[in-house]
Amino acid sequence: MSKKWVYLFKEGNANMKELLGGKGANLAEMTNIGLPVPGGFTVTTEACTEYYNQDKKLSDEIVGQINDYMSVLEKECDKEFGNADNPLLVSVRSGAKFSMPGMMDTILNLGLNDETVAGIAKATDNERFAFDSYRRFIQMFGDVVQEIGKEKFDHVLEAAKEKNGYKDDTELTADDLKAIVVAYKKIVKDETGEDFPLDPKDQLLMAIEAVFRSWNNNRAISYRNMNDIPHDIGTAVNVQSMVYGNMGNDCGTGVAFTRNPATGQKKLFGEFLINAQGEDVVAGIRTPKDIDELKDIMPAVYKQFHETAELLEKHYKDMQDIEFTIEKSKLFMLQTRTGKRTAAAAICAAVEMVEEGLITKEEAILRLDPIALDQLLHPTFEAAALTAAELLATGLPASPGAATGKIYFTAEAVCAAVANGEETLLVRKETSPEDIEGMYAANGILTARGGMTSHAAVVARGMGKCCVAGCESIKVDEAAKQFTVGNQVFKEGDYISLNGSTGSVYKGSIKTVTPELSGHFGQIMAWSDEFRTLKVRTNADTPKDASVAVGFGAEGIGLCRTEHMFFDEHRLPSVRRMILSESKEQREKALAEILPMQKEDFIGIYKAMEGRPVTVRLLDPPLHEFLPKETKDIEALAVDMGFAVEDMLTIIQGLEEFNPMLGHRGCRLAITYPEIAEMQTRAIMEAAIEVKEKYGFNVIPEIMIPLIGINEELTYLDKVVRNTAEVIRAEKKSDIEYLVGTMMEIPRATLIADQIAETAEFFSFGTNDLTQMTYGFSRDDAGKFITDYKEKGILPNDPFQSIDVEGVGKLVEMGVTLGRKTKPDLKIGVCGEHGGDPKSIFFFHSVGLSYVSCSPFRVPIARLAAAQAALSNNKSAFTDK
Amino acid sequence: MSKKWVYLFKEGNANMKELLGGKGANLAEMTNIGLPVPGGFTVTTEACTEYYNQDKKLSDEIVGQINDYMSVLEKECDKEFGNADNPLLVSVRSGAKFSMPGMMDTILNLGLNDETVAGIAKATDNERFAFDSYRRFIQMFGDVVQEIGKEKFDHVLEAAKEKNGYKDDTELTADDLKAIVVAYKKIVKDETGEDFPLDPKDQLLMAIEAVFRSWNNNRAISYRNMNDIPHDIGTAVNVQSMVYGNMGNDCGTGVAFTRNPATGQKKLFGEFLINAQGEDVVAGIRTPKDIDELKDIMPAVYKQFHETAELLEKHYKDMQDIEFTIEKSKLFMLQTRTGKRTAAAAICAAVEMVEEGLITKEEAILRLDPIALDQLLHPTFEAAALTAAELLATGLPASPGAATGKIYFTAEAVCAAVANGEETLLVRKETSPEDIEGMYAANGILTARGGMTSHAAVVARGMGKCCVAGCESIKVDEAAKQFTVGNQVFKEGDYISLNGSTGSVYKGSIKTVTPELSGHFGQIMAWSDEFRTLKVRTNADTPKDASVAVGFGAEGIGLCRTEHMFFDEHRLPSVRRMILSESKEQREKALAEILPMQKEDFIGIYKAMEGRPVTVRLLDPPLHEFLPKETKDIEALAVDMGFAVEDMLTIIQGLEEFNPMLGHRGCRLAITYPEIAEMQTRAIMEAAIEVKEKYGFNVIPEIMIPLIGINEELTYLDKVVRNTAEVIRAEKKSDIEYLVGTMMEIPRATLIADQIAETAEFFSFGTNDLTQMTYGFSRDDAGKFITDYKEKGILPNDPFQSIDVEGVGKLVEMGVTLGRKTKPDLKIGVCGEHGGDPKSIFFFHSVGLSYVSCSPFRVPIARLAAAQAALSNNKSAFTDK
């Protein structure tokens, strides 16, 4: 039995997007609800796949069906393909399952040839129109199907205009256009060696094949890569009889949204042109009119369109983006699709549609893109100011928001400038933990090296600070205090501007605007909280971050890193003394200096969290990160500590590691130097007791031991922590509670999670490290090959951005299952970057985690994503895109 | 019901080692087969555990049973504990399940006090003997039970001798000894504040407790750590009535082996002393006589002993190590145990016992320690020469064997000296791949840094070359061409000697001897091959290594690394040009220079392997390893390649990585530069075709792609390799077969092994990297904390030495199960260091691997271990130690 490769519009419906593409399915749907859609049919996406399977040939079966359906269409329209007297002309458009605007090709007026052009001239009584259509068709066909450079055609057109002294295309006469058609056909003959195909059936099949081929043009592939669209689903082709908006002043064409796509306001929003074809609206040669004006010009058509728009919105229960054409006062619907909108508009429309009774709260939540919320939380450039800006370079959009300021090349210089009241940006080859203060002080960060999970990117996202990372086209010379892009040199104090949401770097200062969170936003968050079962905590190391996160609805801190506190310039000397101590006693002395400062940190954080749980991770990074790197700093430290410079160098070199990521860090530090864990435990506990006594917040600190891979690491440190905590409880006569738990970030830990859960009171998955070790990728080094991996299709998704379900996810599941085998109620969270990624949140929900923890600015995103996960309760809901 | 804590010797047997300890179980066994064993009983290991559980107290129940059994013993011996007229004296000795010679404490003559000493004097008619025993008892009790420094007692003894002008202890008269007893008791009173305990029952309980305590003295704990003996099994205590070898010339004491423990020769081997106690034999004050002489001195006793020894060997079916005492011409057996022996003796005895019909081939195989075979394969120091040697320092026994030579501090210097005919040792802070040639040329390698799996250790083991690694007490100054230990300075050209089996570093040159493999060795190997199911391959990168391995019985190459070949000084320039190429064309040109050289390598290796399978791993290490590190070398390379030095530096810096272990290496290189994989495939295939044509060896190369973690990495490279191989087969009109497979060394690969097996034709587990990533340990850096881990009991076994069954092993099992789910017959091997480790081989056998691959010198070990695994077919057989 032969397969059905072609569907008339009336044979399809809106649910058949996979087979008919989005455009085809919606044309079918509109046809079936009785809207005025020009007749046509859709060649399916399966035909596209078959085309590629047959080595880029249309099978006889497919060709046969296309011809059959063409005949049906001829009957329907009462016109005939290639008939000089009553010709049928069609458009041929791509339409894949997922919208890929502008990525693939379209051909209009197909069916024109030397004979039918006359028929059209006669039928429309407009010879100029007919030949203009014909020359447009040849140009489009030559460009799209025959791959002849567009500029060759443009050149002829321009020459004709010049010769005649015309300014506008519209001044060209019918005769001019006839001559141009001749010239165009010559171009085709010269370029392809063959005559322009005059048989409409040939034209049609060639056009369909060209659309199929365009599925794999470079820009379509890149678009799919960027938007996580599979490469193997193919596109459908829609063949539709032409209608014309350019046959006179009773004609026109336009596009409209059923609501304002920027704000969400419920009011038709769009524009139209009288006597024009669709491409004229897009081309921007004439200025379109506001859709409201149509009311005055063609009141009946406007009324019909307005009603149709309302009907479509009700029918689809969502904001529609509609294309229409008016041919001789008759309205035709050419396309409807879900309207793209800003995050603000999405939220406004969703909430109002619930209020209107159009959709349910669940539907409102499920249709919002959590990632898009990010737009609402960060500063943006003022639109007007941006227009004039000069784009210098593009890096990775490492941390969203817009920032402008004078550039400085060291953290110290930034801090000094900020102290002088300047707005600054920190520019570095790459950042290191030593730069923390400068990163905090600057408005934004720009680095030349490093990926989406480089130090700069991770820290900046944690701070909610704009960052463009890995901007490889800028050459940073930190010593000379300048960077270059091409020939341009930017020196310390020069202004630039960064868009961390897009990765763009602009010359000069651009005004930014701070967004305000609307009531609709709060409503969506409140609804999300009704549905989600996953708790949402935040990663926060400072009272300020903690407060921001609470404002965004964080229910606790899932990760309070203690190392950033160690980089404070007032503490570094003590920290360094601690590291370089030659005996336990010396080390304890240095730690005693740090203790009151750490305690103050925790007091501030506990106060900001007002009794919500706080998970504090004990010191994690390798100690050499805290030591100076520059010769002058090493010399200064040697003098300060009374060491010979040489000895100091030897000690520092001794602390260097081949693979610090796999070296002496995490719990391994605390096992070598239990006194560090003891000091930190003391700071954590004393602060909690003090905050409880003074402010009445009943803090239950959760002490988290990082990098556990061996059960005995945990049992050993659990004892160290508990013994210290008990001493403090006794000293202070406090009955304050506390938990001791562990990170799950070493693959081995997940494999023996049943053992670990014997001791641990909670788990928190550190999926950054877990991903690094499971893949054997260092995120700092992966930049060297990750681009190749993406280009070659080896790694379609960045596993540091969304969790790798089949690999890393298997370990997560194993850890959860084994951990809960030992302790069925074990509290399990995640505090890696994935904690704020919606796709990953779906996975974490599906494996039964208790909470996710993410950077403050991700908290709203996580709340929404968690609600979506609970509502769909289906691992694949999001991965299906 | 009360538990039985005490067993009379006649209540036990040889199988009760766990409960009675080795010594107690054997005393029981000897008692029950009717041998003359002085009466006694054993307090169980469970009592020891109970003692610790009760906070180091003996429970009333245990004390009651001890007293009860003491009464039984009194009746048996017809003597009475504490009876002045007919006193029973006992020895109290420790005895754990596993022999821990000299680690725990022993007390003799217990039961002596001021009254019973007189009874003994009367019974033996030897007052001097009685008081000498008494003073020895007080000293031993004071030392062991009351923890009074031994030297305090020695001081009194020496003073008495000096005062009287005596040279020997034997010159002390009964009166002298009486005075010494008084002085000893005063020491006890002064030190403990209490009188020396005179009640024998008190003495007994105190002694038993002391033995229990000695289970946890420092040297016992270290011994258990070193020998993988669990800490929680406790020791038993044997209480046995005393017999005396020092009551006159019709008395004596001795030890003997039933066969020669050095050679295995079947002949009584031992020594004895007339009129002496056991400790005199050990103390070495008098020179013992050869056991043969006993035949002349006491013919009847000798005959009885000889028969008893034969009986015991037959009974235990193994060589016995026997202690005996002759009291007034009566023979008493005090201990028998399996005799410790050299590897040579073990093999000789095992083979001969099979020939004698004493044991089966299976038993012979199961009782050999595979690791001990290593002794037979490497040079050793001449015993006599070693006696005089000065030990300088001790590092890690990184690669076995003995070596002596002049020290040099760079690979170049070693090579130059070897060219001059010198014997050399390479001394480095740590080695890097650049040192390969020097490592190859030197007799041995000494490094100051790095663990058992550091570069130096791994490479040296691969070469079968002596290496002491991580010898931290030597300070290497490569620039000054010297190292220091304490105050001693050793300069280039000075002689030192290394024992890679023990980690010892000696001053000066020590003569070495090369061992010869006996026919017994071959017999054991042949029997092993009969039983084992696991194939044994070798890791070999050179024809020489391959030949050595074939000589040892390797059945193929499981890992032929290609990177060592790249370090050859004649190739490095081309390799560097390849790395620094700026276009694919440039790179292909450099690769074309390398191709013929690689091809020659493979031809040599294929010839050496004579048609056995050869698995070649494509290039694995990060490219920057091949680039120069020293400024002068960089400058030279820049000149050579026509680069500015600055640009060269930038390029080299650009290739540096934060965590090279997790960086751009393995298959990631081949994905970025497929032309490298293409060149290597060409060299592998062309060489195979040539060797087949010229020499008739039907080589089936197995091309192995390293570091796969993502299925698409493999499918991509599989295509690159196969396309190249097919081109060559067509070019050469050859139908040669080949396989394409992958390393399993990234944790993620084991989790998706079912996918990977769709493409891979074989798996080879790289358990070094798999262990590193599963633990998140870099073996280069773990040295910083691994010592602490061992001391704190966190990591009792080094997971790089024996596979971590519960963590890494779980991933291996998963990889095997998933891989075979896709391809039930999938060939799966292991080519990490674990491939030559017996414990790990047991595990690999248990999970059904097809083969293990190890360094050439490990091949015999692996063959034996594989046979043992097959025979015991029990994962825990070896881990039970």
Could you explain how this protein is built, in words?
The structure is a homodimer of 881-residue chains. With 881 residues, chain A is α/β, with parallel strands linked by helices. The first copy, chain A, is 47% helix and 17% strand. In chain A, a hairpin with a 2-residue loop joins strand 19 and strand 20. Chain A is elongated. Mean pLDDT of chain A is 91; it is low at 874-881. Chains A and B meet through helix 27, helix 29, helix 30, helix 32 and helix 33 of A and helix 27, helix 29, helix 30, helix 32 and helix 33 of B. Chains A, B: GO terms for molecular function: pyruvate, phosphate dikinase activity. Chains A, B: InterPro entries: ATP_grasp_subdomain_1, PEP-util_enz_mobile_dom, PEP_util_AS, PEP_util_C, PEP_util_CS, Phosphohistidine_dom_sf, PPDK_AMP/ATP-bd, Pyruvate_phosphate_dikinase. Chains A, B: Pfam families: PEP-utilizers (PF00391), PEP-utilizers_C (PF02896), PPDK_N (PF01326). Chains A, B: It is an enzyme of class 2 (transferase).
